[in-house]
What we know:
The structure holds two protein chains of two kinds.
Chain A: E1 4-7, E2 10-14, E3 19-25, E4 29-37, E5 43-49, E6 52-56, E7 59-64, E8 69-74, E9 83-91, E10 97-99, E11 103-108
Parallel strand pairs in A: 2-11
Antiparallel strand pairs in A: 1-3, 3-8, 4-5, 4-9, 6-7, 7-8, 9-10, 9-11
Chain B: E1 5-7, E2 10-13, E3 19-24, E4 31-38, E5 42-50, E6 53-56, E7 65-71, E8 74-79, E9 88-95, E10 104-106, E11 110-114
Parallel strand pairs in B: 2-11
Antiparallel strand pairs in B: 1-3, 3-8, 4-5, 4-9, 5-6, 7-8, 9-10, 9-11
Amino acid sequence: KNEVEQSPQNLTAQEGEFITINCSYSVGISALHWLQQHPGGGIVSLFMLSSGKKKHGRLIATINIQEKHSSLHITASHPRDSAVYICAAQLQGAQKLVFGQGTRLTINP
Amino acid sequence: DAGVIQSPRHEVTEMGQEVTLRCKPISGHNSLFWYRQTMMRGLELLIYFNNNVPIDDSGMPEDRFSAKMPNASFSTLKIQPSEPRDSAVYFCASSLFVESNYGYTFGSGTRLTVV
């Protein structure tokens, strides 16, 4: 079993839909990161969070430390949100990131 | 700041050749990371440096891989000799490691193809 598990692996939705991507981890962490990668493109850091919730525009990230679970939400999704979203656990006491396998999101117009 | 700069963007080389990937981190960042991304294994940490010192190289696949950071503004990842299974996208990232308050900035990656 991977230390960081994401679901779903693939998600296709219509423009405007509310999107949720889930991440569960089994290791002790100091922070949880959400990253975005567009096809053929680089990786952008969206959020780093260690508790509660963060919001940036239409993106919201939440984390429940007790349940070792984080979610990334996208409101009013748009085709430009189509990308791979990667959850990464920052191991406790280290700077090392352990990555989930990613969720490929496709938003159709 | 121009961000994390990696070169080259693409590299095609023949099996057995030496390959050197380069990275310039963001000025002022004190940590640098080399990651590899493949379809099969996703993103994996190869090695990271704090203040130019290698801290964790447990992800380096084998002795064919080596990484150096001679100063705060430059790092290299070398593969010698290269093999087809080394084909992947290699990302460099940097961060400012201040306790409990840091994020990562990734470079655009180097797509390596070994034929």
